[in-house]
Amino acid sequence: MTPGAQRTAGLVLGGLALALAGLAPLIFTDFFISVILTKALWLGVAAASLVFLSAYGGMVSLAQVGIYGIAGMTYANLVAADGGSPAAWTPWVAVVAAILVATAVGLGFGAIAARSVGIYFLMITLAFSILVYYFFSQVTQLSGFGGVNNLDLPGLVGDPVQDPAPLYYTTLAVAVLVFLVLRYIARTPFGLSLQGLRDEPARMRALGFDVTLHRILAFTLAATIAAIAGVLSVWYNRRISPGSISLAQTIDVLIIAVIGGLYRLEGAFVGALAFALLDNYSREWTPDVGEILGPARFNTIIGVIFLLIVLASPGGLVGLWNDIWDRLRRRAGPTTGQVKGQPLRGEG
Amino acid sequence: MSGPADRSPGGGPAERQDVPATGAASPEPAAAVVARREGGRWTPQRVVYTALAAVVLVWIAVKAGEDLRRFAVVTLNGLTLAALFFVVASGFTLIFGLMRVVNMAHGSLYLLGGYLALKMQESWFAEETTIVPTLGGGGTDADYSLAGWIVPLVISVAIIGVLGVVIQQVFLRWNQGQDLRQALITIAISVILADQMLAAFGGISRDIKTPTAWPTSVLLPGEVRFGFFRGVVVLGAALLIGLGLWYLIKRTRYGKIVRAGVDDRDMVSALGINVQLVFAGAFLIGAMLAGLGGVLGGTMIALAPGEDSAFLVNSLIVVIIGGMGSLGGAAIGALALGLVDAYADVYLVFGDTDLTNYSILLTFALLVAVLAVRPLGLFGRPA
Predict the structure, then answer these.
(1) Which domains does chain B have, with CATH numbers?
(2) Close Cβ partners of A188 (under 8 Å, ≥ 6 residues apart)
(3) Which of A299, A313, A344 to probe the B interface (max B CBs under 10 A)?
């Protein structure tokens, strides 16, 4: 039971998951592909932008939903749609514009928030996210009165209602790409210094690193990822309204990241899948207990699960996976000079 | 003096010295930069900020000159809004200052406080007097005695205070110091509370009725009419609470312990004071302030799903501006936020272009302006 075994098991599991994801349209129903898997993937990308900041930069940002809302709203306004501005750009141009706009706003947010750390950072980014929501609620020229509906989609995606597979494969490819790029960045000199200043900001500063600049850049990168998630989300929903970027959504993405695990990138997707499954199926098996519990009380259920995870396993489901391996290893006894403590935050 | 932004633990004391701002002659460039930034010179940054402040003041003055009476009403609106923000945010900042707990359920406590008072008022004190055929539906014409407002307020505030202590004892006490985890726990609690409140009280906006004996408005000097509840009750309550908290913190033994605890919790504990009791007390007061804010806000504005997050965010912005843990900061932050909200909602009209839609951007600008100069807020201190 060496760490190697855990890594192998993780790789096998990841490979299996990827193979299953690749063959999913052959195995599952269209409903499952669309409502569970595609949704889990774009939610996972959104959560990955949060987990990236948290795992490698030590910054828990709640602004990600605000940023993906900006990307989604920009896309929705630029392409042909019911509501919003009358512009009717080619979808791909609108995608690029949406990501650029959201990244630029993310850079601005980062420049303001990155000087704060810890809980201050969390509060400031939460305020940003909600201000974005209020902005779009107020400015109905951009958000329409009933949201922006019937968005024009790029030809690649086709019509998700007729055949969900193209959108699913697009989302899957983007999600895998995002995952790999973030993993890669974590191992570049930039990623390593980011992790350095997560653990020892004072020392890194003494060594001559520009701590604030690193934080801002990391935040901007995460904003780009969030923007991609925003575009995927409006492709999936074909509509966007201020309600879809409200505080509830901000908290949902946070819940996904926490359920999966705030300290590992995989956690974002594990959490998103768990969330999508719960969102859809918990309504069926939830018993009716007066007004307190019932099919309509999904938020209570997800809130309780969130609470239990935070209380019991702050590392989330991925943390649970690590705990199990730790326990197996301990049962196997101290073998090849293995020290019992594992680094708290996964790989360094 | 030295803004927290300029702290550089790696830089050593040389940077912190108050070097005379001679600039070019200084042998150490870093020190020169810091000195220039801190000295009373007109740096480009400072010029920009002063210019911005001047523009805002001139704009308000011009708008005020157009209609003085309207200006008075708008200002009073801003002040009463600020008073409400202060009541809610002071509880939030009190809890944070002492325990470093960011109580994300503060907004939920606010809304629950309001709903509980509403429920009590409706079920115990509604006296149907005038037989008005309410064909329009919904509107019940009921009279309320003074007790019909005060009693629900007192009971609701007490319940919320106890609930706050329960939350602290059950969920937060055993993981003190893990501020992120505590924030997540309170977020989870707020999610559950919000959903349960939606189930119990529905999604329709409702408000708590004022006692029938109270006048609806008062006439101020200069023929200005202003709502009695907003202008007298809410402002008065906020002033009383501000004074009360000031007295509690600055003049009582409990306040002394709280202030000592803010500075050095371990030392207070080592001196034989039961810190846990002090913490529970702070949570009691903090939650009670949220509940009181809920009753005031539920009477002044309305109770509806979403008000919880609105007031959580208002509290966040107030304390981010004012500095976490500072009561004076909460007062200043609430004033700034309330006045900006009120002016931006009315005066953002330039000729034919009506920009009041974009008023939220001014709130954002306020936040950014403060954070750009002082990342820890106006009165914030590093933890």
Answers:
(1) 1-34 (no CATH), 44-373 (1.10.3470)
(2) none
(3) A299
